[in-house]
Design a protein that fits this description.
The complex is a heterodimer of chains A (310) and B (565). Chain A is mainly alpha-helical and 310 residues long. Chain A has 13 helices and no strands. Chain A has a domain at 97-265: MetI-like (MetI-like fold), CATH 1.10.3720. Classes of the chains: A mainly alpha (310), B alpha+beta (565).
Chain lengths: 310, 565
């Protein structure tokens, strides 16, 4: 197991390098200039000096400078658009915001999703099952900008329970957190329901019931762990996605998170910022996938990582 | 099973840590005035300021030799208390106020201006050309750029050749190539702001070969930045907030009305801006989103009791127009019918602008038959506008060889996606199809790519706009000089160039404006552009706020703003 984990971690730099090069190629080829403002054409001399300052006058100069700085100092460079700020600062300020929100959203999604999914499976075919399935369907299909705007309008404008555009305390997390949790919650509920139905039909469940264990004790002690496995594999990419921020939810609730930088970075042709954001996201995705694989072995000792590799 | 509980518990622990990190709040006094600018500021380096939101903060923290009067926005003496102007109006001698101080307490000196201006010439920014009115500046700038290219072969150009002289600590003399009637206005504009060299020193990088100095832009962050204007930059939280606190060493400190000002950043979230204003979080929304303004205006029309007194809509210093590619051939080698002025004029005359304003923009904008916004320059005699005349348009098109639109190649109308550019383009396309029998294909392009296509003249007809920078008609007419970098149409007319050049040297203001009006007349006859409407400024301002001038240029002198809650 340890060997496998180490081997996976050794692969990280290679994968990151490939992602870096691909992202760089795309960002470099995109038409437009990070230094231009509005209708005005930037003075050619001014653009030239700026490009030189940013080591971005030639693609090989860019690749000769930034990757080295990243490896040597962990320095992602300065933002080409917001020139007073470094990419490290920008990500350093926004990532914790997104992570806090993501943790909140994912906790809500996991707890509620598993609860709803289990209940639905136990009362299979009943009213609750039908209701929760429909709600989950709505949760998956409703675009987050609609859900987020709806929540904001209802609970901040119509009934001002939660403040607008403030991001300081736990209460400010609630609305955006719920908006962000809807889609993963719906997925988790569906995943749990399906696998729980599967588990409930097993012989050992009948045996446990036969020896006199209470129904909920059986579900809690014997079924939930097995039913949890598919949810766990979904949690890896879900965590990477929610922790690195959602552009839409951040926009609607005005949250200074990382998600906006993916879109704004591309829109502004801010090459250094795009690369930084993509690198952080990739690192998150790979780490969470690894954590999930390790999590498997904790939940189900029969699974050994080394055999998965084959 | 209990092992499973590790996961939610772990998550909660992480959450607590993250919230603890976020919750670090510093106790600070509330601001006296809070407003929303358009997004975050991009730079506070006067050398590269060109966005309106940056310039607004620029005027709050810096001050030129002249500054703008808070109500009229006319140029008045700023850091200089006395200005001697030679009889031929080409030599300006500035006497800097004894009590003008930087935020760190050091007095403002003549050398601070020389340092900033020299840096501007050696390290050009968007507005460096505005220094070219100074004697020798343009030549020095070009020579310095050549020197940087080949430092081994060429001598370092001598800055003494530029008409900027320090007479003593507080006296500065500037010699111009020719009289420039709006020079005081330029001196109030960011490219002419001074800089504090010692404060920038820690961020300086000197090229070992050329001795060329560049600066790490972190110099413009607090607490490093030292400025000489009414305010100092106390905090700049990226994409969250900028805090300005009155500069105790500013010469006119007594007239700085609000000691603390917060600029709240709401990025690309129009509804969020409006909701915060409604919730009383801010006192002023400097650039209200056009569609929200239109909606509020329409609400007030439907129901007069909901008419908003705090919604301000005023003519702006800019024009929305379409530009024609005037080159004889397109980049792909096909002949360009728009190189014929008759075709351009026909297209321009066929447009009825009213449905665009009534149905799309909905802010009672003035339809534009001129390029220079009419209401921005009260003394400017406007030339004859482009008439709206469909019969004449058809005749011109037939004369150019396309009767009823027959034989006209299938071309594209290019616009940048977003805002309402697509809706405007549809109306225009329909009018050209129904009126002239010419069918164009609509092409929406992402804005970064769009501006590149525009600058490289890779289009047939495209959406465009222009906002003026300083209080003179030439801020508009210069764009269509054949030598201008911003002339995206590649229209070139020697008479136009000559009239503009004569106007630039004309000392008499009225005669100047007459010359510029003649130049604009040529532009409107040749139609490299099709003016559609004049922009309006939109803002929301609480009734208790005073000191905001609703001028076309949409600038504000924050030192005069006061919220009497």
């Amino acid at each position: 197991m340890l060997k496998t984990v180490v081997w996976r971690i050794v692969q990280f730099p290679l994968i990151l390098a490939i992602i870096y090069l691909l992202t760089f190629a795309l960002a470099w080829m995109a038409p437009g200039s990070p230094f231009e403002a509005g209708d005005r054409k930037i003075d050619p001399m001014a653009e030239k000096t700026l490009r030189e300052q940013f080591h971005a006058d030639k693609w090989y100069k860019f690749l000769g400078y930034y990757p080295y700085r990243i490896l040597r100092y962990g320095d992602l460079g300065r933002s080409m658009r917001y020139q007073g700020f470094t990419v490290n600062e920008i990500i350093g300020q926004s990532l914790p915001v997104s992570v806090a929100l993501g943790i909140f959203a994912l906790s809500v999604a996991t707890l509620a999703g598993i609860g709803v999914g289990t209940l639905a499976a136990v009362r299979r075919g009943g009213l609750f099952d039908w209701l929760s399935l429909s709600l989950a369907m709505v949760g998956i299909s409703l675009p987050s900008f609609v859900a987020a705007s709806l929540l904001l309008t209802l609970f901040s404008v119509h009934w001002p329970v939660f403040p607008i555009g403030r991001f300081e305390s736990l209460a400010d997390l609630v609305l955006p957190g719920i908006a962000l949790s809807l889609i993963p919650m719906a997925y988790i509920a569906r995943l749990t329901r399906v696998s729980m139905i599967d588990v409930l039909s097993n012989d050992y469940v009948r045996t446990a019931r036969a020896k006199g264990l209470a129904r909920w004790a059986v579900i809690w002690k014997h079924c939930l762990r097995n039913a949890f496995l598919p949810v766990l594999s979904y949690l890896g990419p879900a965590a990477a996605a929610t922790f690195t921020g959602s552009f839409v939810v951040e926009k609607v609730f005005d949250i200074p998170g990382l998600g906006q930088h993916f879109v704004n970075g591309v829109r502004n042709r801010d090459q250094t910022l795009i690369l930084g954001a993509v690198m952080v996201y990739s690192l998150f995705l790979m780490s969470f996938n690894l954590l999930v694989d390790i999590g498997y072995t904790v939940v189900d000792p029969r699974i050994e990582l080394s055999k998965d590799e084959g | 099973m209990m092992r499973l509980a590790i996961i939610p518990l772990g998550l909660l622990a992480l959450l607590a840590v993250a919230m603890g990190w976020l919750g670090r709040r510093i106790d600070e006094p509330p601001a006296d005035f809070r407003f929303i600018n358009s997004g975050d500021i991009r730079t506070l380096d006067p050398q590269s300021m060109s966005w309106n939101q940056d310039i607004r903060i620029g005027y709050a923290i810096y001050e030129g030799l002249y500054t703008l009067h808070p109500q009229t926005l006319k140029a008045i003496p700023g850091t200089a208390e006395r200005i001697d102007i030679s009889n031929d109006k080409t030599i300006y001698t500035f006497h800097i106020r004894r009590n003008a101080g930087w935020t760190d307490g050091r007095p403002v000196l003549a050398r601070d201006f020389v340092f900033a201006w020299r840096r501007m010439l050696e390290h050009p920014g968007d507005y460096t050309y505005l220094l070219d009115y100074i004697k020798g500046a343009e030549a020095y700038r070009a020579a310095y750029a050549r020197f940087l290219e080949r430092p081994a072969e060429l001598p370092r150009p001598d800055f003494a050749s530029v008409g900027i002289e320090v007479l003593d600590e507080r006296t500065l003399r500037v010699s111009l190539n020719h009289p420039v009637t709006f020079f005081p206005d330029l001196l109030a504009f960011p490219p002419y702001f001074p800089l504090h060299q010692e404060a920038m020193k820690p961020f300086e990088q000197v090229d070992p070969v050329t001795g060329h100095r560049t600066y790490d832009m972190r110099f413009m962050r607090p607490p490093h930045l030292q400025t000489n204007g009414p305010y100092r930059l106390a905090a700049w939280d990226f994409k969250r907030r900028v805090r300005l606190v009155a500069n105790e060493h500013y010469w006119d400190r007594a007239n700085v009305r609000s000691p603390i000002i917060d600029m709240i950043v709401v990025e690309d979230n129009k509804l969020g801006e409006f909701l915060r204003y409604e919730a009383g979080v801010v006192d002023w929304v400097a650039d209200l989103a056009a569609d929200i303004a239109a909606e509020l205006l329409a609400q007030g029309r439907r129901d007069p009791s909901r008419r908003r007194q705090d919604l301000h809509i005023h003519p702006a210093f800019g024009t929305y127009f379409y530009t024609f590619n005037c080159l004889p051939r397109f980049k792909d080698g096909r002949p360009n019918p728009f190189s014929d002025p008759r075709v351009r004029r026909a297209f321009a005359m066929a447009i009825d602008r009213r449905p665009i304003i009534q149905n799309v923009t909905r802010l009672d904008e003035q339809p534009a038959y001129h390029y220079v916004p009419l209401r921005s320059f009260p003394d400017y005699p406007p030339p004859r506008g482009i008439p709206q005349d469909l019969e004449e348009a058809r005749r011109l098109l037939a004369e150019a060889g396309y009767p009823g639109g027959k034989g006209f190649p299938r071309l594209k109308l290019t616009f940048n996606t977003g805002f309402n550019h697509g809706d405007v383009a549809q109306i225009i396309r329909r009018q050209w199809r129904d009126g002239l029998g010419v069918e164009l294909e609509l092409e929406g392009v992402e804005s970064g790519e769009f501006s590149q296509r525009l600058h490289n003249v890779e289009y047939a007809v495209a959406r465009a706009s222009w906002y003026g920078d300083y209080d003179d008609v030439s801020t508009f007419t210069d764009k269509y000089l054949s030598t201008s970098d911003n002339n995206d149409s590649k229209w070139a007319n020697t008479d136009y160039d000559r009239l503009c050049a004569r106007a630039a040297r004309e000392p008499d203001p009225a005669a100047r404006l007459a010359l510029l009006s003649q130049a604009e007349q040529i532009l409107l006859e040749e139609c490299p552009i099709l003016p559609i409407y004049y922009y309006v400024n939109r803002s929301l301002q609480k009734p208790y706020v005073t000191g905001i001038a609703h001028s076309p240029r949409n600038l504000v002198m924050l030192k005069a703003v006061f919220a009497q809650r």
